Each structure stands twice: as structure tokens, then as C-alpha cells.
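subagent[fold] <- orchestrator: predict structure for attached chain, return C-alpha cells only, no commentary.
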Amino acid sequence: MIKITFPDQSVREFEAGVTGLEIAQSISSRLAKEVLSITVNDTLMDLTRPITTDASIKLHKWEDEEGKHAFWHSSAHLMAEAIEALYPGTKFGIGPTIENGFYYDIDTGDNVIKDSDLPKIEKKFKDLASQKLEYVRSEVSKADALNYFTDKNDEYKLELINELEDGTISFYKQGNFTDLCRGPHLPSTAPIKAVKLLSVAGAYWRGDETRKQLTRIYAISFPKAKMLEEYLVMLEEAQKRDHRKIGKELELFAFSQKVGQGLPLWLPKGAKLRERLENFLKRVQVRYGYEPVITPHIGNKELYVTSGHYAKYGKDSFQPINTPAEGEEFLLKPMNCPHHCEIYKTKPRSYKDLPIRFAEFGTVYRYEQSGELHGLTRVRGFTQDDAHLFCRPDQLKDEFKKVIDIILYIFKALDFKDYITQVSLRDREDHSKYIGSEDNWNKAEQAIIEACEEKGMNTIIEYGEAAFYGPKLDFMVKDALGRKWQLGTIQVDYNLPERFELEYIGSDNQKHRPVMIHRAPFGSMERFVAVLIEHTAGKFPLWLTPEQVVILPISEKYNDYAEKVLNFLNNSDIRAVLDDRNEKIGKKIRDNELKRIPYLLIVGEKEAEEGKIAVRKQGEGDKGTMLQQEFVDFINQEVDKMLSEIEQ
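subagent[fold] -> orchestrator:
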């Protein structure tokens, strides 16, 4: 007999070799139908694998990420089987799960799969799922694995197998399809009740532009048809909110092939929006004692060699810039932190000077593959709302908690109410991808965990997600559609101060090493604006929106009066524009409502005679007529109320 410990710490005995499915069945038949995977002693496993020793377990249903992972990973294999049945000879790359669904990279040779082919694959998928095919795991020797995929003439699987250690290789088989896979998978295809193949894209094998481009098919599946229906409605709403679409409609930003892929051009309205966001954060930073700095857009390659960024991210950088001097190389700045370290070193520092907080809206450049670029969320040039704090070890936790306060203040101001805080730590086993001593890492990780506990934050811990130089706290925000975005981040770093030999003179008159905090509440201005557009559907808060008011004269006769109103409002610090097109007033109203301008002011004969304006609010209709100063006071009161609620 073996002892099984459940999440509530209760313990039950089972015969050795019991499976997760049998354990679920012993609790209730309903649970056995709903459970999708199991974690055994921190290892995610199939429900059908035997448990032979005492273990702590957790059973996962659809509501759990681990449950969705098994469900979607099993669905990826089923989609591959459908594709192989319809396109014999297809070669398969990888088929992982993603945040919403899964994909498979495939090579169909001379066959070209288009979006119009997806319904045919989808139908085959459903036919196979209905057969309730079992997923069967088998441990395979490296030689047998190579022989199997050599016979299939699948060079992609052979490449993957050659990188694996003998004794660590497993296959999964369902129906007529066998795949190289670690798992876990569902017991059978029975739970898969609904599927939608979403799109076809191109993807280089292993993300390498020098390798062959494969076909990537994205899909999603669910245990209930109603879930799929709800997801497709959400997807339709997401398409309406697409920041690329709204950004074009509102004339916020643009891209130009002549300028280059992934290099956004901020148009006047977008620049105003960005400027207001920057000014908002700058005012907050002044309250918290930050000092502005400015650094160049390029730096000597040796700067990034010293920091460790070149060794870790050199291949993702743009090619070095060679100067006329022999052997001298510069890089487009991929990070701001090395520059801020050098600013710290410009003069001797005392323990009395610390903490020092340098802040910069610094533009950095990283080479993203063209297939990975996506609107403002994935670009090659972006501006970080970056700051680096240099403090004594005894100041670390307090400074970290103050940064948390700044990020939460920003989220409140922009109505991001739903977020998850994730403590990102080193990989438990593989420390090779991190720099610095074990002691420094332990101190940094402990400081973050304690700071979060003292702030009363509910955090999740993710191993292997730390930056190469230190652990971090990431803020994962859910937007209005429930999608997760990583925005703010705070990182603790003992290592760059060592690599740059940063020092301060302590109260003991000895030299000491400061601790460094990296923080970016927005993350990057580009990504943050993209998320904000989709979260608000382009209807920005009144205090932030580039255009608060549009003035609509009923006919050309009232253009002069409309100009006077415009000048009065602009002189009163109200952001107003004039639509004096020779169009009917109904069309002007409709056009400007599509531009998401909060207030529409209509002026005609009566308004011109009385010195008034007819006020219409976006989404609420007529608000009556007001004197011009009365409207200015009305707008200012609304903005003041918004900002005072943020402060509370």
C-alpha cells in the first residue's frame, strides 16, 4: 500500500500502481469524468500512469491551467492525426499549447494548406474525437525512436530526438497517429466535444529565419460546445477592439515599409496620448523622489559585454555598428540599465546619498523576427518607462514596496482592476542561464517574497521565469475581455552592481556594494498603449484622451462662432477640435462618435445668439445647453473627480 496526500493534507492509502483516474473514481464518478490531468510530487502526469510510491497529488479539471494544458496538448495530437489522414506524408515539427488553444507546425511538401482548407481538417478532427480514441504512452529507446521517424522520413522529429538523452524519450499514440512527446495527455479523446481551427500562418523551423518555413495551424478546443460559442463571441469582440484597427481609425500610429518593419510612427494624436501618459508617470515619480536622466541610443559593445546582455541577447540584437576606427563597435541600445550604472559611477557615493532613483523614458532596439512582429505589442524599437534604483541592502524591501505602490496607482488610474502578481524565480535545476552568486540570488529572491508578503499580495510563483541577472515581480493584467497581458515589472539585482563595480562609502567608512532595482510600470509605451486601446476599445478616460471635445457647426453659417468656441476652450486647457466640413449634422455626429471623442458640442443659430453650446456625450446622448464657461467648469469637475478617485 502507498500513502496519497491530497491538497487539504488529508491522507488515504491505495494499492501501489494506482492511477490518478482510479483515485478520482474513488472520490466520485462525477470527478472522474471531469478530471483531466494530475500533478504527482510536482510532476504533471497522465491520469493513467501508475503511482508506485507515497506521493502528494493534485487533480486538475478544466478550470486549472494544468487541466487545459493536457486537454489542448491532446487536441494538438488529434489535429495532427487529422492532417496526416488528409495529407499523407506530412512531416511534423512541434505542437505545443499556448495561452488560448494550441498550434502545430507542419511541412506538407507540395501541398499548400489555406484557410479555406480548415473546415475539412476540422470535420476530420471531430470524426476522430467522437471515436473516443485512447492516448497510450510508451517509453522508447533512442535507437528505436530514430528508426521510427527515419522510416517516416520526418527530419524534424529526428532533429529533436538527436538532442535527447537515451532513457528520457516517450511516444504517445492515439488511433493511427504516433508522436514524440513528454505528455501529459487525456486518457482518451472522449472529453473533446468542440473544436475550431482558427488560422494558418508561416513559422520558421525552431524560429530560425535561415531554416525552412513551415505551416502553422492555430486551433482551440473545449469540453462543451457552449464554451466554444462563448469563445468565438469573445474573439469577434477582440477583433473589433484590435489596437491595429482602432489605432488606424483614431489616427494614433502607423507603420511604413520604407521606415522599416516593427518601427512605429506616432501620429500627432498618438503622440499626445503618449505624452499625457508619460507626464502622468513623471508627476508620480517626482512624488517618489526620482531624478530624470537621458542616455544615448547607442553604446559601445563592451558596455553590454560587461553587463552580460551581449552574451545572453547578442543574437537578438541588431548587427554591431562599425566606426572608422579599427575594431571599434557600437550597438543600438537594447537595454537602459548599463547606461544608468555608468551614470551612478560618475561620482563617489555615500550611504547618505542612497537610495538614488534614476528614471528615463528610454528607447531601445531589439531585432525581432518579421514573423513575430505584431502591431505595437511586438516591435523592434520601443520606449521603456525605465528606472533604476540604487540602494543599501537595508533599504531594499521598502524601496521595492514603494515601486509596487506606483504600479498599483497606475492600474487604478487606468481601470485595470483584474491582475495577477507573479514572482518569477530561477529554474530550480538549471542555473547555467543566470549570472551571479548563489548567495546573491537567495537574498534577492527572499527580498521579493518578503516584500510581497508584507504588502499582503496574493502571488503565484513561477520557476525559470527570472531575468538572467535577478528575480522579479511581474504584473499580469486581465483586460476587459479577460485576456492576460504582462505589463509592469520590478526586478532585484545584486549582479550588475558587481559587474560594473558600483560602490558607496558606508557609515563605517568602508566601501560597500549597492543593490539595484529595475522597474517599468508600463513595461513599454508601445505595448501599454496597445493594451490600453483594446481594454477601452479606444474610449480613453476623459483626463487622458487626445481629443476631449469636437465642435460641430450645424452649417457653414456658424463656422465663425464655432471658431470662437474652439479658441475659448483651447485657451481654457480643454483639448478641442473643430469639424467644419460641409456635411449634414447627423453625419458629423455619427463620424465623430466613431472617433470615440467623449463630448460633441453642436452650435447653430440659437447657440450663436445666446453664446451657448448644445452638449452631447458619447454613449449618453444630449446633456442640454450650457454657457461656454459653464461647460469648461463641467469638464474640469469631471476630470478632477476622476483623478481624486484615483488618489483615494
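orchestrator: received. Logging for downstream: The chain has a mean pLDDT of 92. Residues 167 and 446 are 36 Å apart (CA to CA).
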